[in-house]
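Below is a typical protein record.
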Amino acid sequence: TVSQLFRSILDIYTLDHGKLTPQAEPVHLGALLQDVVKQNTEAARWAGVELRLRPCRHWVNVNAGLLATMVQNLVSNTLKYASGQPVLIGVRPKGSGLAIVIYDKGRGIAAEHLPEVFKEFYRVRHVRDKDVEGLGLGLSIVKRISHLINLDIQLDSRLGKGTRAMIQGLETVAPRAMMDRPVSPHSRLQGLRVCLVEDDANVLMATSALLEKWGCEVETHSDGVGVTSDCDIIIADFDLGTKVSGSECIAAIREQRGWE
C-alpha cells in the first residue's frame, strides 16, 4: 500500500508540475480498450465482475498511454466497488466527437459526494470498506490527466443503482493505416543481437525465449563478471549478486566495445 501511495503521489506531482508533455497520435480506440480489459481479466475474475466490451472501430487523436491510465483507474474502481456485478465498457457519439462510457451496477455514490470524489484521498465510506484496497487517489489522477490531454470526465451515479463514468472530447481521425504504413515492432527486432544478463535461471530462460520468438539473436549470461559481446543491445538485470551490478556490466561492455 505504501508503494502504491508513493507511485500515485509521484504521478500527481508529475502532472501538477508540467513534467509531462503528452504527444497525441492516431490510436485505435477499440484496441486500446481491449488491452485494458485483458489486463484486468484476472482481477475481474477475483472480484466476480464480468467485463463486457462493446466493439469499436474508431480511431482517435490522443496520447494512448495517458488515456489508457484514465480508463484503467476507472475500471479499477468498478472492481473495488461493484464486485459481483457486470461492467459494460463502450464508445458512443458525444457532440462532435466520441466518449468512452463505463457502466457498473455497484452500490452507487450519493449526490452529496459526487463533487468531492475527484479530490485527493477522498473516499466514500461504507460498511466493510476496510476490506477494500484503495487510497482515494485514482479519480484525482484521472481528473488531472483529463485536463492535460483536453478531455472531460463526468460521473453520474444513483445509490443502489450504479455509476456511469464518461470520458468525452475524443476527436476522431482517419485510421493510421491510411495515413502511413507503420513498421511492425517485431520486424524491427528481426536479427537484432541481444546480450541478456540475468542471474535468475527461470527469468533468463523465459526472457530469452520471448526475444527469440520476436526474431532476436540472443546470447545469455548468468553472471555479469567479464562479459564480452558484439551485441547491438544489452538487457541486464540490475541486481546480479555481490560481485558486479547490471549497470557496471553494461559500462564494462561499452568500454570494451568503445561505444554506447
User: Anything to note?
Assistant: The two ends are 38 Å apart (CA to CA).
